[in-house]
Write a structure and sequence with these properties.
3-stranded mixed beta sheet, 33% helix, binds copper (II) ion, mitochondrion, metal-binding, transmembrane
Length: 229
């Protein structure tokens, strides 16, 4: 999860997010190089009084400074498109979970099981266990096995919501009457926090998402205890 005054993105917990972090760093390198060059030219312009006429009518230099930015843009666009289509791919999921956004909680249905459904409400500040995070902890964690391709179906019951977990690189709109799907594989065990990411009403800030990645045994234990509830 994010820490106070964090500037960058959260650490990656899925291959998708790792790719996104690489794209972010790549784009930032381009931004820094261009900014440095522009800053250098501006400082030259304001500190030099001489006028040089070398570039007044130079077809060659015109061609270069038109084509070069186009190439730079393509070098950013192509990796971006690659990740976009990778994220869209649904490859034989081991598990399918359906989540529905409500005002103001998320409900989950594990459709591979007979009757595994639950609502996930935020834990109120006064009820928090020591060490847990305010406004992010939920009473029921969405538990998934680690390293398993998981399909998430996202919908809403009342208004627009958005199911988002930054460390997994996920953000899927929850639209009433529409079923969106997204795919993730969590690469390490842990608790991953997210929040509703579509302004959905008065308690929009109070419907967090907690995904817990465990090994397969712990997941089986969790599912049997949830079935007995
Ligand atoms: Cu919402």
């Amino acid at each position: 999860m994010a820490h106070p005054a964090q500037l960058g993105l959260q650490n990656a917990a899925s291959p998708t997010m790792e790719e996104l972090l690489h794209l972010h760093d790549h784009a930032m390198m381009v931004v820094f190089l261009i900014s440095t060059f522009v800053l250098y030219v501006i400082s030259l312009l304001i500190t030099t009084t001489l006028t040089q006429t070398g570039t007044m009518n130079a077809q060659m230099v015109e061609t270069i400074w038109t084509v070069l930015p186009a190439i730079i843009l393509i070098l950013i666009a192509l990796p971006s498109l690659r990740i976009l289509y990778l994220m869209d791919e649904i490859n034989n999921p081991h598990l399918t979970i359906k989540t529905t956004g409500h005002q103001w909680y998320w409900s989950y249905e594990y459709t591979d099981y007979e009757d595994l459904t639950f609502d996930s409400y935020m834990v109120q500040t006064q009820d928090l266990a020591p060490g847990s995070t305010r406004l992010l902890e939920t009473d029921h964690h969405t538990t998934v096995p680690v390293n398993s391709p998981t399909r998430m179906l996202v919908s809403a019951d009342d208004v627009l919501h958005s199911w988002a977990i930054p460390s997994l690189g996920l953000k899927t709109d929850a639209v009433p009457g529409r079923l969106n799907q997204t795919m993730f594989t969590i690469s390490r065990p842990g608790l991953f926090y997210g929040q509703c990411s579509e302004i959905c009403g008065a308690n929009h800030s109070y419907m967090p998402i907690t995904v817990e990645a465990t090994n397969l045994n712990a997941f089986e234990n969790w599912s049997t205890t949830m079935l007995q509830l």
